[in-house]
Structure formats: C-alpha cells, structure tokens
Amino acid sequence: MSKKTAAETVRIEGYEGHFDDLEGGYTVGFETYTQTADLAPFFKGLSDDRCQCSHWGYVLEGKVVFKTADGEEAFLAGDAYYVSPGHSPEIFEGSEVVEFSPTDSSSSS
User: Is residue 101 in a domain?
Assistant: First the structure.
C-alpha cells in the first residue's frame, strides 16, 4: 500500500493522514502536519491520560516528541522510532511521518 492507495484519508485543519490495514494486525499511517499538534487532550481519561498503544515510525521531515512518565524523547527527520504505551505525542509544524500501529488499538494514536 502507499499514501496514494490508502483506504482511508483524514483531512482536518493542520493535518492530513492516509491509512490502511496491513496483514498481520497492523495499520500504517502516512501523516503530514502543517500545524504543531499537542495530542495530549485526546488521551484524557485513559490510563495516566496517555496513549495506550505502541507505535513504530519513521520521521520523513520535521520533529516528533513523545512525552512519558520518564521524560521526553525527540525524533528528527531521518530517525526511526518505537514508543511503548504510556505516551503523549507532540508533532511539530512541517512534520511528516510514516507510522505503524496495532490495528486493534491504532485509533488510540
């Protein structure tokens, strides 16, 4: 699958995402941010008010920061990452990522 052939496209102000499910229980997302997005408010009410899904990704452009109980970790263009459950992401304007998440919890971002 590719960004162009993705089954689902989401466009909102400052964000565009293209998603599709892969065999083996994973969802891939091609995501572009034209505005900085602190996604913490989306996880209010979850355990520790943080995302409870694992993610593997690659930063094509820009910067992504994952905040956890242990601190923050930043990833820049050219970095691959893994983040375990219990995080809150902040993605900066001009960022583009490809991210893989378990399909059964990928809506948790």
Answer: yes
Quick: pLDDT tens for 57-88: 999 999 999 999 999 999 999 999 999 999 99
Kindly give the residue spans of alpha helices, DSSP state H, lying in 1-109.
none
Question: 1 in a domain, yes or no?
Answer: no
42 dihedral zone (left: phi>0; alpha: psi -120 to 50; beta)? alpha
Q: Is the separation of the CB atoms in 84 and 2 below 8 Å?
A: no
Which DSSP symbol is given to 50? S
Q: The sheet that has 26-33: what strands, in order across it?
A: 8-12, 15-22, 26-33, 95-102, 55-61, 80-83
Q: How much is the pLDDT for 63?
A: 98
Q: Which amino acid appears at position 8 of this protein?
A: E
Task: Please report the pLDDT score of residue 108 as a whole number.
Answer: 44
pLDDT at 107 over 70: no
